[in-house]
Amino acid sequence: MAPRKRSRHGLGFLCCFGGSDLPEINLRDTHPLQYMEFSGPIPNPEELNVRFAELVDELDLTDKNREAVFALPPEKKWQIYCSKKKEQEDPNKLATSWPDYYIDRINSMAAMQSLYAFDEEETEMRNQVVEDLKTALRTQPMRFVTRFIELEGLTCLLNFLRSMDHATCESRIHTSLIGCIKALMNNSQGRAHVLAQPEAISTIAQSLRTENSKTKVAVLEILGAVCLVPGGHKKVLQAMLHYQVYAAERTRFQTLLNELDRSLGRYRDEVNLKTAIMSFINAVLNAGAGEDNLEFRLHLRYEFLMLGIQPVIDKLRQHENAILDKHLDFFEMVRNEDDLELARRFDMVHIDTKSASQMFELIHKKLKHTEAYPCLLSVLHHCLQMPYKRNGGYFQQWQLLDRILQQIVLQDERGVDPDLAPLENFNVKNIVNMLINENEVKQWRDQAEKFRKEHAELVSRLERKERECETKTLEKEEMMRTLNKMKDKLARESQELRQARGQVAELVAQLSEISERVPGTVWNEIDDTQVFRILDLEDFEKMFSAYQRHQKELGSTEDIYLASRKVKELSVIDGRRAQNCIILLSKLKLSNEEIRQAVLKMDEQEDLAKDMLEQLLKFVPEKSDIDLLEEHKHEIERMARADRFLYEMSRIDHYQQRLQALFFKKKFQERLAEAKPKVEAILLASRELIRSKRLARMLEVILAIGNFMNKGQRGGAYGFRVASLNKIADTKSSIDRNISLLHYLIMILEKHFPDILNMPSELQHLPEAAKVNLAELEKEVGNLRRGLRAVEVELEYQKRQVREPNDKFVPVMSDFITVSSFSFSELEDQLNEARAKFSKALTHFGEHDSKMQPDEFFGIFDTFLQAFSEARQDLETMRRRKEEEERRARMEAMLKEQRERERWQRQRKAQAGSSLEEGGEFDDLVSALRSGEVFDKDLCKLKRSRKRSGSQALEATRERAINRLNY
């Protein structure tokens, strides 16, 4: 187009022009894309691919298009590359090859539109500028789009859209501006930039107010495609709410329904617009939250139905356009499927949502026999009280109720609304939880008061019965075990007696075969010379060459006895002791007579817990107390509570001995259960140490290493003290101080003796045995022995006395002594066996001359095993760290190589340009939406589902008809 000059003198203020005269700018591309002759020889394939890749990267092509371009033969690639190179060097294109030019022109156009009226030729020139920008955004290299974004080009376009006057709004410039935004969104970077702008989609939606059908179609195509983009659906809904306010609509989507129903008089334009509207409606209904949320689709579709879309759809069928009919079919099929799904929830075939009576009947039927039915009645009752007269605010109150129900239905569990929330800070989940808590509190508060008094009594009775049953069951089981063990013991001792005679002769014969080395020990069984054939002695000598290792006691405050006595109360017991006794009695919650009967019956009903018995033993009447109380026995009614309790307990024969026997009986099984595992730990740990082949093999390796370190292969040691095991970890390598002799030992075992690494599995009882203090264990066993003897003495005494009718001491304690004596003798036998086995273990490891206790002896091995496991972990960590360092080194080398390659590519890319015209993925999305292809898969699925559901519905209708006839 030939340049023209303007004579108006008012344009000198525009910064983009040098003065009143416009510069001569060639707006049309006089050099369209064409294949040029080769500008040089074709480079080698590797260099050609690098150059061509730089060219393709500038185009931001989809994966499919990239594959197609890269599949071209080398000659075509070089021809395209040379063509683009020639195009970049064209001096006539320098002005329009940068976005700065277009941004300045559009800004000036926006500023001038309110100052001057332009003729047709000037309007055409302005439109051409915008069209050229649209073409540039589609065809220019990637750097053009990037710079356009950096220079706030999108803001420039949006500001122009907001400030357009009526003439510009109805012109082709408006359509071209929307086309520029669409072209920008055809690029992934540009699309992300548009979606990131808070007001961009809303500003685009404002363009629906124009009368230009092509502009409306372009806007609807953008909005429909944005619905299908992740994160875009909610932005479109927000934009439609914004348009409702902007266009003063009574309700959302009102303009769209009006346009859908209006006739333009031009068939092609009318069909295109109505197709765009229906494709947008289908996208907004079925994309985003509508993809898998039935409630959302029903909610949003109801808006369109209330606006009268169904009669309009029936009317649109008259156009007989295949693409439009495809969108209409999809709308109706999805609607029918959703209506069927909703009807299934109420066991119906169809629900007439226009009939208030039918909907009420369904809700009434669903809730009639549920706890929610009173709430339904309350809702209806309060609806009756809502205002009905056409005065101020009546409509808004009903609207508020409608919006609250919408939000309750739509809001998900996280409090997120798929549609724009009509009510701010309205979190349905939080409110429902508050109501649930309120109802639960009210319900349980009523029941709590009812059950509170019964609860304490029932729990107390239940606990007593449970304790009684548990005690009887344990006694029965213990007695049966005791009888069985007595039988086994008799048979075993008879067998052992016969074997003992034969062993005496064998022991005498063995005495003559004592070795000069370390007889009777593990060292007599191992030969360290075998290990030397396996060890890498040079490596060991290098690794471990010789080196030199360089409260103030606070007194308690005196308690004050504050309990006031009654005027006529008689008390002869010490005040503090009496107060403590009263506290104990209040905890027992038993009368003096109930306590007396419990002591006589040996707590048959388990009224006295073990801790209470222990406390009662602290308040046994002393001789001085008894003497004082006897002097006032004629005044028993005046006695204080503690005094009377002590007096009545003193009337029981041998009260203290009875209590002690009862307490010993209750605690016996518990004390026995604590002692047995300790004895068994010593016994089993001793056996494991003696029998462990892996341990013996490891000691052989350690002995060989020790002999070599001291005197070479001819070291003369036949063994070592077990305490030396824990010194292995202290010997550090002279090469790497992080490596100890223990680490090296494990490396040897992993390489030559991997089976030894499983040694800890053979010594599982060492940790428990290392905790046992034999002196304390023997003391506890002695206490049990003395306790049993004391019970036997008391039992003999009670047998000689005349018993009261309820006195059950003799039968109960006789049974107890019978069972417990055998259990205790079994414990003593185990303890003796454990001592013998422990002594044998000491001898086995050459420690017979030491005075080691089990906790010390087993503790040595336990500590060694812990250090052994930690050293294995250390080695594993070292290996992983080494592997990680090697992997990191490889990655760094790869990254360095990649950075070098990318740097070289960037250098090559700076010399290359691109203006290949390719369709973008956003265009593909718009095209698929326009043609309805985006819904094809769902449409086929709905058709198949409709056939199945139709036959099922017909069958269900027949069954219901038969049922009604039978009824």
Automatic annotation (TrEMBL):
The protein's name in its UniProt record: Disheveled-associated activator of morphogenesis 2
Coiled-coil ranges (or none): 434-517, 588-615
Pfam families found in the cross-reference section: Drf_FH3 (PF06367), Drf_GBD (PF06371), FH2 (PF02181)
Molecular function, one GO term: actin binding
Gene3D superfamilies: Formin, FH2 domain, Formin, FH3 diaphanous domain, Leucine-rich Repeat Variant
Keywords of the record: Coiled coil, Wnt signaling pathway
Domain DAD: 915-947
Domain FH2 as annotated: residue spans: 494-894
Region (Disordered): 896-917
Biased composition (Basic and acidic residues): 896-905
Recorded family membership: Belongs to the formin homology family.
InterPro entries xref list: ARM-like, ARM-type_fold, DAD_dom, FH2_Formin, FH2_Formin_sf, FH3_dom, Formin_Homology, GBD/FH3_dom
PROSITE patterns on file: DAD, FH2, GBD_FH3
Any single biological process term in GO: Wnt signaling pathway
